[in-house]
Amino acid sequence: MARGERTVIVSNRGPVTFSRSESGERTHSRGAGGLVTALNAVSRSGDDVVWIASAQSEEDIEVSREPAPYEVDDLRVTLVEHEPEAYDLMYNHLANPLLWFVQHGLYDLPYTPLLGEETRRAWEEGYVPVNRNFAEAVSRTVEDAGFPIVLLHDYQLYMTPLFVRERLGADAFISLFVHIPWPGPDYWGVLPEYIREDVLESLLSADVVAFHTRHYARDFAETAAQVLGVTYDTERAVIHHSGREVWVRAYPISIDPAEFEELAQSESVLEQEEFVKGLPGKLLLRVDRMDLSKNVVRGFQAYGRMFERHPEMVGEVTFLAQLQPSRGDIPEYARYAEVVQETAERVNEQHGSASWKPIELSMQDNFPLSVAAYKNYDALLVNAVRDGMNLVAKEAAVVNERDGVLVLSENAGAHEELNDNALTVNPFDLDEQADAIYQALTMPDEERRRRAQALRETVMSNTIEDWVEAQMRDIAAYRGL
Amino acid sequence: MARGERTVIVSNRGPVTFSRSESGERTHSRGAGGLVTALNAVSRSGDDVVWIASAQSEEDIEVSREPAPYEVDDLRVTLVEHEPEAYDLMYNHLANPLLWFVQHGLYDLPYTPLLGEETRRAWEEGYVPVNRNFAEAVSRTVEDAGFPIVLLHDYQLYMTPLFVRERLGADAFISLFVHIPWPGPDYWGVLPEYIREDVLESLLSADVVAFHTRHYARDFAETAAQVLGVTYDTERAVIHHSGREVWVRAYPISIDPAEFEELAQSESVLEQEEFVKGLPGKLLLRVDRMDLSKNVVRGFQAYGRMFERHPEMVGEVTFLAQLQPSRGDIPEYARYAEVVQETAERVNEQHGSASWKPIELSMQDNFPLSVAAYKNYDALLVNAVRDGMNLVAKEAAVVNERDGVLVLSENAGAHEELNDNALTVNPFDLDEQADAIYQALTMPDEERRRRAQALRETVMSNTIEDWVEAQMRDIAAYRGL
User: Fold this and answer.
1) Does residue B196 sit in the same domain as residue B300?
2) Distance from CA of B117 to the nearest CA of A (A)
3) Same structural domain for residues B205 and B321?
4) For residue A2, is it within any domain?
5) Averaged over A159-175, what is the pLDDT?
6) Which of B83, B333, B361, B397 has its CA 20 to 30 Å from the CA of residue B340?
7) In what order do the strands lie in the sheet with B405-409?
8) Confidence of residue A3 (pLDDT cuts 50, 70, 90)
C-alpha cells in the first residue's frame, strides 16, 4: 500500500472495549476472536489506518464523542455511537437471526421464518440507519485524505458500501468482505424483496466483494445474476454492473501461527492440559460456539453409531466437546443447546459405564481449555452443516502434538484448502461420519504423521499475513498501480 | 413426429390401473392428475407410442407378464413388475422423502435428514434396480424399432437415462422431464456424494433435460457445473459433456382447458356447488395436496393477520381450504396435518363467531368440490414454499366465473407465466400475504376483470397441446430434421 494514503477498516465489533476503573480512569481490553486478529493484521499493514467499530460500552460511547481517532497500543480507533434501539434491531432482529440463518441455511422452511412488518421495521429503523452511521463515520475519517481505501467487514455492514459510495464518489476504493457463507439464489430468495435487492445493489457498488472460498464467490455471482440480472465473467470473476467492474474474489482467511504456538506454552493452557490428559483413552475433540450451524447433535449421534458399528471402541476413547455458549436468548439456540445435552446424555447412558463417560461435555467459555485440547487430540471433528471458514481446524493443526487426524465437513470453508489431508464427510450422513471418526482413531501412525504434517504446512503456507497481502495486491491491481 | 418411429413414454405411475371384477374379468380405471393428463397428450401425438409404467396392483402384475403392450382405449401400455421391497425402497425411502425434500428445500438442516447406510441401501437395492427395470422394459419395447424416442418422466427415474443409453447406444433420442423444482448446488449437496454425482451423470447422458421453468433449468446447469465441473452455455442453454450436447430446456406444463370446461358443467360438480355457494361472504380458496411444500400453515396465519390489520373484513369472507390427504405415513406429513388443523382452529376461535367460521377446512379427496370452488372463488391463494408448477392456478383460471384474483407465490413454477396478472407474494412473509389477500378481496371490479381475463388468455395460449408440440419441435431440431 502506498504511504500517506488513508485506509479505513470498518467492522461492527472493534479491537478494543473501553471501561472506567473504580478510580475513574479509562481502561481498555483488547478483543479476541478470529476476525479481530485478522483485522489487526490489516491494521498493521499501513501507516495511516483507522479502525471504525460500533461503541458497545458506556465508556465506548464517551470515546465515540471525542473528535479524533483514539490511539491505543498500535491502533487508531474510531467508535460509532448508534441509537440503542436501532442497534438492537440491526443486531438481534436482522443480522443474527435473519441474515445468519439465510446464509447458513438454518430455517425449517415449511414453518420458519415468519417475516412481516417487524422485518421491515428492523431493516428500515435498525439495519439501514446503523449502516448510515458507519458510512458517515467513514466519510468524516477520510475527509482530509486523498485517495481513501475503505475495507468493510461482514454481514452487519451490507448497506455501507452504497452509503460510502454516495458520500465519497467513484474514486474511493471500497471492498466488503463477507465472512460467512453465501447461499445460492434460492435461499437468498427467502429474504423480502427489498432486502434481497438492496443488499446486492449495495455490494455491487463496492469495487471488490470478497469471500473465504471460490464456492461462495461463485454463489454470490450467480445470486446477483439471477436477482439483478447482471452478467458475470466466470473466468475473470468479474461482475459488470452500472458501467463498473466489481471483482468477486476468494481470500481464505487464516490465523497467526506464532500467536498459537505462544499460547500453547502459556501457564493457563498448561494448567488445563492436566485435565485433558486425564481423560481416558484416545481423545476425540470438537471446539465450537454453540450454534445451529455447527452440527453438534449429529456429531454425537455419529459417535454413538461408531460404538454400534465398532463395539471394540467402547472404553477406548473420550469425546471432549468444548462448546462456547452463544446467543442463548434466541429461542432456536436455547432449544439447540437442550437437544445437544440430551443427545450427549443418551450416548453416555447407552455406551458408557461407571468408569468411563464417552462424551465429556464442556459448555463454558474456556479458551485455554480449547488450546490445551488442540495440543492433545487424536482426532478433531469439524462437521459443520455450513461454516464460513472454521478457524478451529487451522488453529488446531498448528499446535497439535499427537499427529491428530482432522475429520472435516465438506461444507466448511476450510475444506477448499484442507481437503487433501483431512477425512471429508457429508455433514448429513451419520454412518459416513461414524466411519470417518473410527478411521481417524485407528489410522496407522505413518499416515497420521504424513497427514498432520501436510495440514500444518498448508496452514503455514497461507497465514494471516498472506491473507492481508493477497488483498493488498488486488487493491493495487484494481487501481492499476 | 415422423411416422413409423417408435416413441416410448416412461413414468412411474401409469395411465391405467387394472383389476379383476368379481366375475373374473379384467377391468381398468383411468388415472387422473396433471402428469397423466399431460402424458396422454404426448401419447396422442404419434402413431406408434407405448407408455411404460410400474405395475401397482395384482392385476397390473398379470398384465406386466404378458409379452405385448396392452391396448386399452387409445393407449398401448406396458407395465413393469418390480420386486416389492425394491419398489418400496425406491418410492418410500428414496424418492418421496429424500429427493422430494431436497428438491423442495423442506429439511430442518440443523436436525434433519439423518442419512447413512439405510440411504445407501434404498439407493442400491431400491432406486437403482427399479430404474434398471424401466430401462430393460424400454429396451424390449424398442428392439425392433429404427430410431427410438424415449421420453422419461420425473424424479423416480433419474437413473433410467444412463441405463437406456447403455442399452440403446448413441442413436436413441432420450429426454428426461423433471416435474418438480431443481434446487441450487448447495441444497443438492445435502445428498450423499454417490447419489449427487450418479444422478447428474445419468441425466447428462440424455439429450434433453427438461423443466417447467427457466429458473430450474438454470439451477440444474449450475448444479452440474459445480458438482461435475461441466461447462454450460447460458445463451444456448446447452451443457457440453463427454463430447455430446445436452439441451437444458424449460417447457412449462399446462392443462387441457376443454377438459375443465366440461368438468365444470358435470353433475357431480354442480352438486358440490350448492355447498360452496352456501358459504358466507366472499370466497377465498386454496386447493392443495396436504404437503409441507404447500405452505398451508402460513396461509392461515396470514389470513388471521388480515383480520388484525383489517377488522372490517370480519364476517365478510370464508376461506375454503380443500386439502387432499397425502403421504400420511411419513411422520413429517402427519405432524404437518396436525399443525394445519391447530392453526385453522386458532384462527377460527380468535376471529370467528357463532354464525361465521372464518376457515372451512376440508381434508378429503374431493375433486368435484375443488372444481365447484374453482368456479366460485373471489380470491385464490397459491402461496407454496416451492412448487414445480402448480396446475391449480391454471385450472382455476380457466373455469372461474367471478373474475377471481390469484395470489401467487413467487416460488411456484407458474409464477414465470402468470406473474403479470397475479398478486405476487413472498411465501415467507405473513404481512405481505395478508395484504395481498386483502387486496384481492377488495379489488375494484374492473381491475379484477382485466386480470382474470389476462390470466385465462395466458393459460389458453399455452395448453397441454402446445406443451407437447414445443417438445416435439425440439426433438426434431435436436436430430437435425
Assistant:
1) no
2) 6
3) no
4) no
5) 96
6) B397
7) B359-362, B317-324, B282-289, B379-382, B405-409, B423-425
8) very low
Q: How many CB pairs below 8 A link A and B? A: 120
| A385 in contact with chain B, both atoms CB, cutoff 8 A | yes
Would you call B188 helix, strand, or coil by DSSP? helix
The pTM of this model reads 0.96
Distance separating alpha carbons of residues B251 and B274, to the nearest angstrom: 38
Tell if the CB–CB gap between B385 and A110 is shorter than 8 Å: yes
Lowest-pLDDT range, A204-218, A373-387, B29-43? B29-43
Q: Do residues B130 and B157 share a domain?
A: yes
CA–CA–CA angle A201, A202, A208 (5° rounding)? 105
Reference B20, options B67, B50, B61; nearest CA is B61
Per-residue model confidence as pLDDT tens digits over B381-418: 999 999 999 999 999 999 999 999 999 999 999 999 99
Contact B430 A119 (CB under 8 A): no
CA distances from B409 to A112, A147, A307, B7, B380 (A): 16, 47, 47, 36, 11
A238-241 and B231-233 as β-strands: parallel, antiparallel, unpaired?
A: unpaired
Which residues does chain B have within 8 Å of residue A192's beta carbon, measured at their own beta carbons? 426, 429, 432
A192 interfacial to chain B (CB closer than 8 Å): yes
Give me the interface pTM, i.e. the ipTM. Answer: 0.95
Domain assignment present for A194: yes
Asked if A345 reaches chain B (Cβ–Cβ under 8 Å), the answer is no
Residue B310 CB-density burial (10 A; 0-12 exposed, 13-18 middle, 19+ buried):
middle
* Residue B226 contacts A, CB cutoff 8 Å: yes
Tell me, rounded to whole angstroms, the distance of Cα A404 from its chain centroid: 23
Q: Tell me which residue of A361, A282, A373 sits closest to A323, measured CA to CA.
A: A361
Residue with cell 457440453: B240
Q: Are B264 and B236 members of one domain?
A: no
**pLDDT at B449 (0 to 100):** 98
Question: Closest-CA residue in chain B for A115?
Answer: B429
Mark whether B375 and B246 lie in a shared domain: no
**CATH classification of the domain holding B135:** 3.40.50.2000
Domain that holds residue A448: 257-461
Q: Are residues B398 and B274 in the same domain?
A: yes
Using only the alpha carbons of chain A, give its radius of gyration.
23
Total count of domains within chain A: 2
Q: Is B105 on the interface with A (CB under 8 A)?
A: yes
Closest residue in A to B183 (Cα) is A186
Judged by CB atoms closer than 8 Å, whether chains meet at A184 and B184 is answered as yes
Is residue A1's pLDDT more than 50? no
**Rg of the Cα atoms in chain B:** 23
Rounded to whole angstroms, the Cα distance separating A465 from B336 reads 51
